[in-house]
Amino acid sequence: MRIDIVTLFPDFFDSPLNSGLLGKALVKQIAEVHLTNPREFAIDKHKRVDDEPYGGGVGMLMKPEPIFAAVESLPVLPQREIVLMTPQGETMRQQMFQEFAGNLDQLVIICGHYEGVDDRVLNLVSREVSLGDFVLTCGEIPALALVNGVVRLLPGTVGKEESLKAESFEQGLLDYPQYTRPAVFRGWAVPEVLLSGNHQAIAQWRKEQQIQRTRDRRPDLYTHWLEQAKED
User: Fold this and answer.
1) I need a labelling partner for 151 at 20 to 30 A (CA). Which of 79, 179, 186, 201 fits?
2) pTM to 2 decimals?
3) CA 98 to CA 151: how far, in whole Å?
4) What is the residue-wise DSSP string for the chain?
5) Counting Cβ atoms within 10 Å, is residue 100 exposed (0-12), middle (13-18) or buried (19+)?
6) CA–CA separation, 112 and 219 (whole Å)
């Protein structure tokens, strides 16, 4: 998969794109990430990418011309999605990562800044995406989360791909509690069922724990899971 990030601050991505599983995936060419700075496409001598909003207001807006020019300079692959990182967008979910990882050849991510972007940029994008119901200083932070969430699902990124199927949100439920050695730590013991060697009992316990955790911690997910279970 090709990922293009349109960003005013390419240096923001230097360390994350060279670290951990994400860095290894890029080295193995499971995915490739290209950074494009819209400032390079600014048309005035001062290379301005922002201006005051019409009608007045606080702050500055990113101008449309550099953003359009930056995106239009990119190659176009057959299955492509152009997303704008904005608090007004669709909240990221695991299903979104799965959709992108399974269907796209190219993901173009536009990082907003200042008070946002000129609304005409929406004519360029196919989807608006948000990290959550809050405001950050820049679109690079949620863009990195999106890249990480998508690339880790691409074949070859995670060593044991079966582990992806048993984690939070994959089946509409949160993950079950997990333990490792020692069996007792500061008086807290690992549940006996996990030491029993009875794989059927362990699987049942884990399922029950997933349901209980989701019900207690994320009642919204639990309600959706119940509705889905009834349909199935």
Assistant:
1) 179
2) 0.87
3) 10
4) -EEEEE-S-GGGGTTGGGSHHHHHHHHTTSSEEEEE-GGGG--STT---EEPPTT--SS-EE-HHHHHHHHHTS---SSEEEEEEEEEEEEP-HHHHHHHHHH-SEEEEEEP-TT-B-GGGGGT-SEEEESSSS--S-SHHHHHHHHHHHHTTSTTSSSSGGGGGGSTTTTSSPPPP---S-SEETTEEPPGGGGS--HHHHHHHHHHHHHHHHHHH-HHHHHHHHHHHHH-
5) buried
6) 32
Torsion region of 132: left, alpha or beta (phi above 0 gives left; psi -120 to 50 gives alpha): left
Structural domains of the chain in order of their starting residue, each with its CATH number: 2-151 (3.40.1280.10), 168-231 (1.10.1270.20)
pLDDT at 171: 81
Query: What tens digit of pLDDT does each residue of 138-161 get?
Result: 999 999 999 999 999 999 998 656
**Nearest Cα to Cα of residue 90 among 148, 146, 132:** 132
